[in-house]
Design brief:
about 25% helix; globular; single chain; four-stranded mixed sheet; alpha+beta; Nucleoside Triphosphate Pyrophosphohydrolase
């Protein structure tokens, strides 16, 4: 592998139901054994307010090939949620110099089938061009949120992204005027 670490070998903090670190494990082992870890979800919008939507590549370790309305990923061992949000947004969007994503809320994702992670949701405005990683993104576009809503019943989306999106919509409703949106 030319000295490069695969995503399955990345070291993650393993956390408990209160998001306290209780150990570390390789990413591949964390997924295989259903170990709770940390992830970030970044709601990326352009200056017109359109949402960055993309289709994941078929080679992704988790949820290969569906669409997602967030960029993001796992939080590395010892990494903060805030640092991971910026790193993942810049990596997946292929855009450097982004403003630091704004933290919105955090929730525990659990699909009931062994996939569980603490999920921090952020928002970032993307003013410049994007050039997503071809290893991560098979297709992308900025869609008006109304179009995204229409695609929810047509396209297959990642389940954790759908969960984060439902919570984002509820959070915006609870936050009132001036909230994200």
């Amino acid at each position: 592998m030319d000295g490069l670490m695969s995503s399955a070998d990345e070291i993650l903090d393993i956390v408990d139901e209160n998001d306290r670190v209780v150990g570390q494990a390789r990413r591949g082992d964390a997924y295989a054994r259903g170990l709770r870890h940390r992830c970030v979800f970044v709601w990326a919008r352009d200056p017109e307010g359109r949402v960055f939507v993309h289709r994941r590549t078929a080679t992704k370790l988790v949820f290969p090939a569906p669409y997602d309305m967030f960029v993001g990923g796992v939080v590395g061992a010892g990494e903060s949620y805030d640092d991971a949000a910026l790193r993942e947004a810049e990596e997946e969007l292929g855009a450097s110099g982004l403003p630091r994503p704004e933290f919105l809320f955090k929730f525990l994702y659990d699909d009931g089938a062994g996939r569980t992670w603490w999920s921090a949701v952020y928002e970032v405005r993307v003013a410049g061009a994007v050039s997503p990683q071809v290893e991560e993104v098979a297709w992308h576009g900025f869609l008006p949120e109304a179009e995204l809503e229409g695609r929810l019943g047509e396209w297959e989306f990642v389940p954790d992204g759908l969960s984060a999106y439902a919570r984002l919509r509820a959070w915006r409703g609870a936050s009132g005027p001036g909230s994200v949106g």
